[in-house]
Amino acid sequence: MNGVDFWPPSTLEVVFLLLGLVAVGSALLVVTTRQLVHAALWLVVCFGALAGCYLVLTAEFVAWVQVLIYVGAVVVLLLFGIMLTRAPIGRSDDLDSGNRVVAAVVAVATAGVLVGVVVGGFQHAYAELRPGAGSAEELGASIFRNWVLPFEALSVLLLAALIGAIVLSRTDIKGRR
Amino acid sequence: MHVVYPAVVAALLFSVGVYGVLARRNTILVLMSVELMLNAVNLNLVAFDVWLRDVLHSGQVLTLFVIVIAAAEVGIGLAIVLAVFRTRKAIELDRLRELGEP
């Protein structure tokens, strides 16, 4: 242990753990709720809490991108999907398949293995938080100096995905006969 | 900040996503659970980037890339779900059993 005890936790750690609790709790509600639209709305809470976690971890830019893209775009897209597939708006009791018990067993086993491994592997690791380490300036410099090629490849991928989505969802495009 | 805290939160979030993928019937709910798993990975990437003080900021840059890929994945996934709904009038996963032409 390099000088930093687990108890008492610092204020930042308490804030982080509360946000993490909100994130995990709302994630549980996402996968257990009986109403489709509520699942999407709980997803907003989960992503918002995760953005707060990123802020506590000094990753400001990632936090705002998370708010813009996940809360702003992905959830709206999912809500569009719910509306367009004419899902029932109220309670529906057939959202879960028959293998809930098996799924719960697998999930608990996954959680046990992962938590055991990370607690065993990183119990002495301590990250010194340095404000400004994840600011837009630092990240922008990093992306456009060292990560330009993956960035450009991703823009092409995003374009291809958008064109693919348009082609898949339009009905008046027919294949060549 | 102890690295254990974000790592444990991410592990729990990932397991919740695993449960959602396995237990849900509705395809859109499965897509939401996949998003939860991707977010767990993102939290890990950010936490380890902060811990290791990477000069290239690979953790946070990869987080941004994962967010972009997740957006692309949701777009394509929903387009496929809509196409399936249009042809079969159902998006329940356990009713989509046959692989060939109906």
Question: What does this molecule look like?
Answer:
The complex is a heterodimer of chains A (177) and B (102). With 177 residues, chain A is mostly helical. Helices cover 70% and strands 0% of the residues of chain A. Chain A has six helices and no strands. Chain B has a single domain (4-95), classed as Orthogonal Bundle (Helix Hairpins). Chain B is mainly α and 102 residues long. Chain B has helices at 4-23, 27-52, 58-88. Chain B has three helices and no strands. Helices cover 75% and strands 0% of the residues of chain B.
Summing up helix and strand content along with how strands pair, one would put the structural category of chain A as: mainly alpha
Spans of chain A with pLDDT under 50 lasting ≥5 residues?
A: none
Major pleated sheet of chain A = none
For this structure, the quaternary state is: heterodimer
Question: Which topology of chain B does CATH recognise?
Answer: Helix Hairpins
The end-to-end span of chain B amounts to 56 Å
Percent range of helical residues of chain A: over 70%
What's the layout of helices and strands?
The complex is a heterodimer of chains A (177) and B (102).
Chain A (H helix, E strand, L loop, with lengths): L10 H22 L3 H21 L3 H25 L15 H23 L13 H11 L1 H22 L8
Helix pairs in contact in A: 1-2, 2-3
Chain B lengths: L3 H20 L3 H26 L5 H31 L14
Helix pairs in contact in B: 1-2, 2-3
